[in-house]
């Protein structure tokens, strides 16, 4: 099967639970044999985004379409420059290991390169999900205090933390963020489905 076909949604799927089970098994197949997080998160964001679009077009009203799906991750995961020439700039606040998360693989329009997650100084849905280590469902982004509008067309959002358990300790790696053009675009079924997908992605990669 061509890789792109993994985002097709069969017409036998009519509920959100069936939809997320289907996306989970398609993603499991896509991640098999690969443990690089850049590669796997790239395919994960594409699969979730493309499958949700297909589902909303065929089984919904098409108006509830997802308009962004991607990851923000802790800076130590990212590569450091191998060749530091004269043009190299000093490490900026945007790559500070403890106070920001950086834009990773995503699908959709361009977005903020980094998000401040310093306790007491942060704002927005991603920072809150990261700091509180819990999924945040936002029915109307305009009513969410501190929401960061990367795209003025976004009306609702859901953000899941990515956590890894290492030596019995929970480590936060970043967040999975989805935006929608409609109000209340995501519900508890999406939350459950996305949390399972976040776990699958974390377990499938070497960090
Ligand atoms: N809305 C997010 C910012 C990231 S974008 O939606 C891609 C927030 O409030 O944290």
Defining traits:
Beta-Lactamase; 207 residues; alpha+beta; binds methionine sulfoxide; six-stranded antiparallel sheet; 22% strand
Describe this structure in words.
- The chain has 207 residues and is an alpha+beta fold.
- The chain has one domain: GAF domain (Beta-Lactamase).
- It is built from 4 helices and 6 strands.
- Strands 3-2-1-6-5-4 form a 6-stranded antiparallel β-sheet, with helices on both faces.
- Strand 2 and strand 3 form a beta hairpin.
- Helix 1 runs antiparallel to helix 2 and helix 1 packs parallel to helix 4.
- The radius of gyration is 17 Å and the shape is globular.
- The structure holds methionine sulfoxide (SME).
- Methionine sulfoxide binds next to helix 3 and strand 6.
SSE layout:
Elements: H1 16-31, H2 37-59, E1 66-73, E2 100-108, E3 114-116, H3 125-132, E4 136-138, E5 156-166, E6 169-180, H4 188-204
Helix pairs in contact: 1-2, 1-4
The chain binds methionine sulfoxide.
Average pLDDT confidence is: 92
What top-tier CATH class fits best?
Alpha Beta
Q: What is the approximate shape?
A: globular
Approximately how much helix is present in the residues?
25-40%
Major sheet size, sense and barrel closure: 6 strands, antiparallel
CATH topology: Beta-Lactamase
> Strand order, biggest sheet?
3-2-1-6-5-4
- Domain tally: 1
How much of the sequence is in beta strands?
15-25%
The appropriate CATH architecture is 2-Layer Sandwich
Q: Could you state the CATH homologous superfamily? A: GAF domain
- Helix-strand makeup class: alpha+beta
The hetero molecules present are: methionine sulfoxide
